[in-house]
């Protein structure tokens, strides 16, 4: 089978499509013939050598794929061979074939395309978990979403729309604001030409927001914390600020690390604020929790309340272009790789 390998730390040119033996499903696993695989910011960080959870290089990464079950391991009866599934893959998803525990292969709702299927698991589980489980979003709250036009960002905006009267603020490059409005973002903010902290304050009459979803890190976590109203919640779930170019930049890394905020329980108590973290990659053992969230998302998809927005689809052979597409900040929504 063919797969996209990150051969070593470096720019997009280190990606290679290589042929290898077909994997065989082990006990409890199904094998999925991949029709579309999601590309995530984590994969870019893995290529840059900035993702501590990534497998040792050279490696095939990929947290999600959609395809058709084509073989069952010993002891597995469902999902049956031939079932269209979306799969949560802890690496190896960017390949023609991937084996996963049967519980991580969820039958796709009717009408969902493989590209949509590959766009759902990581982006929507992250946004759903952060908004509903961790931040416990309530009607009429105000939510600031960073990287709002990215995969998780659009998922978060769509999920906010499922709760009555929620007002959303989204940071994104100016060219994406029309798309953001279409996705229900009330206040797109161009963080590149203005200080979003000042803009959010202006738009909220100085009061700030109830929830900040922040995958940027460093000084932005400080800004997000300052923007919280009493009883506000900051959810940290990424450190995209570390990725400043096609190659790892040690000076930038150092600058970002020294700007990390320090929170103390006494400070949080007196400020009436909460700071929480989300790393879906560390929830792999929580099958019940993930299944509950995935079932809710499939239900929302079937009701038409959420719809993954696939920005671009690249064949495996053009994986380097797909990485560049995200790193040059051109994507609105999900980037998908197809074998
Ligand atoms: N903790 C978790 O479990 C978890 C799970 C999924 C994702 N994440 C994190 O969530 C964030 C969003 O992921 P995603 O897959 O949704 O992202 P994505 O779709 O790849 O978003 C890319 C967009 O983010 C913006 N951006 C901001 N800073 C950037 C930078 N330094 N380099 C390149 N683009 C940058 C750009 O849009 P604009 O120019 O419009 O800003 C770009 O088009 C990432 O930090 C990721 O690591 C965390």
TrEMBL record:
<dbReference type="Pfam" id="PF13602">
    <property type="entry name" value="ADH_zinc_N_2"/>
</dbReference>
<dbReference type="InterPro" id="IPR020843">
    <property type="entry name" value="ER"/>
</dbReference>
<dbReference type="InterPro" id="IPR052100">
    <property type="entry name" value="SV-ATPase_mito-regulator"/>
</dbReference>
<dbReference type="InterPro" id="IPR013154">
    <property type="entry name" value="ADH-like_N"/>
</dbReference>
<dbReference type="Pfam" id="PF08240">
    <property type="entry name" value="ADH_N"/>
</dbReference>
<keyword id="KW-0560">Oxidoreductase</keyword>
<dbReference type="InterPro" id="IPR036291">
    <property type="entry name" value="NAD(P)-bd_dom_sf"/>
</dbReference>
<dbReference type="GO" id="GO:0016491">
    <property type="term" value="F:oxidoreductase activity"/>
</dbReference>
<dbReference type="InterPro" id="IPR011032">
    <property type="entry name" value="GroES-like_sf"/>
</dbReference>
<feature type="domain" description="Enoyl reductase (ER)">
    <location>
        <begin position="10"/>
        <end position="337"/>
    </location>
</feature>
<protein>
    <submittedName>
        <fullName>Oxidoreductase</fullName>
    </submittedName>
</protein>
